[in-house]
Amino acid sequence: MGEPALRVALLGCGVVGTEVARLLTTQADDLAARVGRPLELAGIAVRRPGRPRPDLPVDPALFTDDATGLVEREDVDLVVEVIGGIEPARSLVLAAMAGGASVVSANKALLAEDGATLFAAAEKHGVDLYYEAAVAGAIPILRPMRESLAGDRVRRVLGIVNGTTNYVLTKMDETGAGFGEALEEAQALGYAEADPTADVEGFDAAAKAAILAGLAFHTRVTAMDVHREGITEVSAADVASARAMGSVVKLLAICELSEDGQSVGARVHPAMIPRSHPLASVRDAFNAVFVDAEAAGELMFYGRGAGGAPTASAVLGDLVAVARHRVGGGRGPGESSYADLLVRPMGETVTRYHVSLDVADRAGVLAAVAQVFAEHGVSIDTVRQRPLGDGDDAELVVVTHRATDAALQATVEGLRGLDAVQGVTSVMRVEGE
Amino acid sequence: MGEPALRVALLGCGVVGTEVARLLTTQADDLAARVGRPLELAGIAVRRPGRPRPDLPVDPALFTDDATGLVEREDVDLVVEVIGGIEPARSLVLAAMAGGASVVSANKALLAEDGATLFAAAEKHGVDLYYEAAVAGAIPILRPMRESLAGDRVRRVLGIVNGTTNYVLTKMDETGAGFGEALEEAQALGYAEADPTADVEGFDAAAKAAILAGLAFHTRVTAMDVHREGITEVSAADVASARAMGSVVKLLAICELSEDGQSVGARVHPAMIPRSHPLASVRDAFNAVFVDAEAAGELMFYGRGAGGAPTASAVLGDLVAVARHRVGGGRGPGESSYADLLVRPMGETVTRYHVSLDVADRAGVLAAVAQVFAEHGVSIDTVRQRPLGDGDDAELVVVTHRATDAALQATVEGLRGLDAVQGVTSVMRVEGE
Fold it and tell me: What does the sequence similarity comment in the record state about its family (chains A, B) (predicted)?
């Protein structure tokens, strides 16, 4: 080729960074042919540069602990950020762009918290900021959303975007295990971290929901805007109840346009979806994103949402794209937030509830329960009643029609106050119908 | 905005063209915001400009029967070609590019037959040629393949890319109907054309397979290179036999790299795939493309493969992309054929066969049958034998291990010559395991 190489600085060399460095080395010829110029590692910023890395076929002299010095080097054209977290990642990415480098990041937390600052910097310095790997790992979802659907109107996005929780929920569904037991299994197999908070409490999924909602609706959405409930309260009984309805419990990231098109909502919570829904068959640690757009109709994107190699695949796809812009001119699409729609609070979101009640098995109870729903303007879709084994109690399972979350919440509060209701044993939203 | 509009010439105003024109009009504000400049229809080339089109909210003066004159107009920046077929589409697209316009085409036949000429012209004139709508309608598959997976190594693509045949095969599976009956139902419901040849004989899928293989393997592949078998010979017995194995029959477009990475194959034929495979649950007229890449692992893209609005969604996504290049500079990726791998003939393709035989129910028959497989070096995975209701015959179902298609074909010929074999009742390839 004879063209001078484009120089790549890699920030972070954990599971993903190692794969990025490995692929940059082993696939160098293919990457050069696809970009039009070779890609060459300029340096790798890590905490401990001297640590032996026998599996990684790169020059040990490339490692440095001076990340700031690396991104500010004049010979760096492209920066890959796979450190994660807010700082120092943000400062490094901003310094890289200020120095004229295009950036590829896998950092969902940073993009979801402070994307606007980063996009503004990219715009100001005339560089690219790509981040396909930040959502759903290897699955191409941000580029399709940002480019393929750029001529369409997205109405709704339903995503299974966290592999750990999907693994846990799959095991609960398959074996009848409780949350704790399924989580332990996931930890033993490496599907959950020792501190699983970010995953099981829905923080990871909420960051991804914010990114997806921003792209889908051309509106700034941050992680703070996303209503978030994790899966720690999902019980074996909830899962069994879903099964009895022909449904399955999934942790969903839901981004949706209101019916009048004037506001958007973004939320993460467990929900029951029918087994016939394409997302229901997404099992174990796999991810999938279901998109409903006005002209395109229903689309689904499925694949591996995490792991070194899959995430590196997404990083390298972006790297080739931004490198091509260096070679051929132009830039990819920047932030698109022109629609600037209102992000509505959860209480105004319209959804359906599945409520299980432990009630006294006597005449008039159903009437009293139905009265509470009616008082809050919530209409009932189905009621299923069955005696419980232990004497005078019965189980009442109510699935509502669509109503605002505030009305549904108030209804549940009202039910808790009824004399005839021993307890509200399960409350879960119903989606995907 | 105040910027002058980009002028769009639309060639063809059938089902897809009508939707493109409608969306350009009704979504004009959104499109302008996303592109950075308004998009404006410069003209619509049709056969009968005077025909009333009450559903289409555009100025009747835009219609013309002079397509050549339209694409050569100096005020045309972008050309959308949704005429289909080879000529006059090719000449018009070439004239448009020669005049400096970027082109968005939905024309799978043209791309698969003569893509190289078109890409060369785009390169020569420094314009974009985008064609997402040519494969799998609304499903973003070409952009992910061409851009998202640009840093990865695709090993295999398995696609259900023809909605008509998938509808027919779904009905055969659901109802036990034969091919003819299921096709008639599809025709009655508008899922199949009066002359269904292009669909049921696999020509449509073969064009798409050529396009997918070219992108996946960075190698020129034309429709002529694709081994093609349609579904007209698929019988109710084949479908029942698949069902008995826990499988389902699908018309697959298969593009694969050989194990040594030195050659590629592209083929379209019916095949049995296990019901547990993600493609098995793609029903009715839906399409899906399953991709196996080295780093990304398994990906699947699912959605509507045809229809006016879904196809228009893909066209408009491309239109926004090429329009952004007009506004911001740069071009999208051109043809990538640097790998220039050998396209191997079908006989060298490695696959598995499912063979059903009607045999005499007597000692020694299985040995004779097994001997024929052994002579051709084909190893048997499973054999299932059951007496047929009508006396002295038995059905023998053999599923092979992987072998070259040539060896498998020769084996089937050998079986036909055996005295003990009354008939070979079904031969079908087995994929997706």
Answer: Belongs to the homoserine dehydrogenase family.
